[in-house]
Write a structure and sequence with these properties.
Radius of gyration: 21 Å
Number of strands: 25
Largest sheet: 10 strands, mixed
Number of helices: 11
Length: about 450
């Protein structure tokens, strides 16, 4: 998959396009069109009330410019997902072909889904995995085919009242992924989902639920993009991951939204005894990103990990981080955050580590590295580290640096151009994150970073 930026190449035809703005009638219409059970409609309506009652967050990035009443909250490009790639309309298929989805499916992936605005348009899963009981569907399909599993976990980790954007997602969610991996099954190749906002003033509110039973392993990868528009769009996803005993889940995100998108996402996982949850998060695009993937370490020796990178350019604020909540003895966590700010951009690390009184012998390490490219740019660190037991350890390191003239001069004296020298320094800075990506993502990410950094020396 190649999450590149393109100029608007959208198709203007939709099976259904809501009126602008949010209302109870719209929420009921979404649920009716999806033929949902009554309990889901009730949750949507309750969440709508919570959204309307809750204030817009003031503690992070500036969200005052979001025009909630101007957004299209539901756009349906197709009636049902296509089962064959050849069935997808040319205008839509061309968009995904340009970013490499079909090739990625053939060469690198165990399964792939593609979502266009509010709905999944295409999906596949290797037959060998399906025979083992692995499920990889859109969330809408998961609700219909596995209603008891969805009802058991939906909103349990991220309740609708958690924050205003979680309430909004619960009210109008559409699409997203439902992944279920039975006990003892290891999915050796990644499962990929690709999300695209393709309409102006559109909102995308996918809901993702991943359940890894005891001893299971899975790597889920998502890519995100949007074409160039002058007015803002909104992406407010919710992700819930359940990692059972001795299971391991890795969740990798490479986002490259256009710079008019507000990316406001809630991601959270519960991690059982001897289980591992890994978040790998790469944020290059958007006007504003507020995202803090979290691990609730519930079982003994549970481990949570966050590898994060953010690149903030002109008129961008990347407010990212992680939360690690230690509830059980001998739990461990690690957060590595890398950020680059250039051309007046702002990158912020906002994180929390909390070790509860019951989490005896627990350890956590936080490393925040920021690279500031010019005097106009800004980097901030907002750590909140709490240990409520004397038998624990928290380490926090933070480094802020600039690409100095001495570094550039030294590399140029070895025959590199100024641009090549800068690229080499940046690649070295980001290497701990890039090394954890699948090969095709690592190559593409390096290319995207290089494109984003052009002209930033100074």
């Amino acid at each position: 998959m190649k999450p590149v930026l393109e100029k608007n190449s959208s198709t203007k035809s939709y099976r259904y396009k809501s009126q602008r703005g949010l209302s109870e009638n719209l929420v009921r219409e979404i649920s009716r069109k999806k033929e949902e059970p009554d309990w889901m409609l009730e949750r949507r309506l309750a969440a709508l009330e919570q959204f309307e009652a809750m204030p817009v967050p003031l503690w992070g990035a500036d969200l005052s410019q979001i025009k909630w009443e101007e957004i299209y909250y539901y756009l349906r490009p197709v009636d049902l997902p296509y089962k064959s790639w050849k069935e997808v309309p040319d205008s839509v298929r061309r968009v995904f072909t340009e970013i490499g989805v079909p090739e990625a499916e053939k060469e690198f992936l165990a399964g792939v889904t593609a979502q266009f605005d509010s709905e999944k348009i295409y999906g596949s899963l290797k037959k060998s995995l399906a025979k083992q009981g692995v499920v990889f569907l859109s969330m809408d399909e998961g609700l219909k085919q596995y209603p008891e599993i969805v009802k058991q976990y939906f909103g349990k980790i991220v309740p609708s009242g958690d924050n205003k954007l979680a309430a909004l997602n619960t009210a109008v969610w559409s699409g997203g992924s439902f992944v279920y991996v039975p006990a003892g099954i290891q999915v050796d190749l990644p499962l990929q989902a690709y999300f695209r906002i393709n309409a102006e003033n559109a909102g995308q509110f996918e809901r993702t639920l991943i359940v890894a039973e005891e001893g299971a392993r899975v790597h889920y990868v998502e890519g995100c993009s949007a074409p160039a528009y002058s007015s803002a769009s909104l992406h407010a996803a919710v992700v819930e991951v359940i990692v059972k005993e001795q299971a391991k889940v890795r969740y990798t995100t490479v986002q490259n939204w256009y710079k008019t998108v507000y990316n406001l996402v809630t991601k959270r996982a519960t991690v059982a005894k001897d289980a591992t949850m890994e978040w790998v998060d790469c944020n290059l695009g958007s006007k504003v990103t507020m995202k803090y993937p979290s691990c609730i370490l519930q079982g003994e020796r549970a481990h949570g990990e966050m590898l994060s990178m953010a690149v903030a350019g002109k008129d961008q604020h990347q407010d990212t981080g992680a939360k690690m909540i230690h509830l059980a003895p001998w739990t461990t966590s690690r957060i590595i955050s890398k950020s680059i700010s250039q051309q007046g951009g702002r990158a912020s690390y906002r994180g929390q580590v909390k070790i509860s009184p019951a989490a005896l012998g627990s350890r956590s390490k936080v490393m925040c590295d920021a690279l500031i490219m010019d005097p106009l740019s800004r980097s901030d660190t907002y750590p909140n580290n709490q240990s409520l037991t004397g038998d624990s350890q928290i380490e926090h390191e933070a480094f802020v640096s600039r690409v100095g003239e001495e570094q550039l001069l030294y590399l140029r004296s070895r025959g590199l151009s100024e641009e090549e020298a800068q690229t080499l320094i940046i690649r070295g800075f980001l290497e701990p994150i890039v090394a954890e990506l699948p090969l095709e993502y690592a190559v593409e990410l390096n290319r995207l970073v290089k494109m984003g950094m052009e002209g930033s020396v100074g």
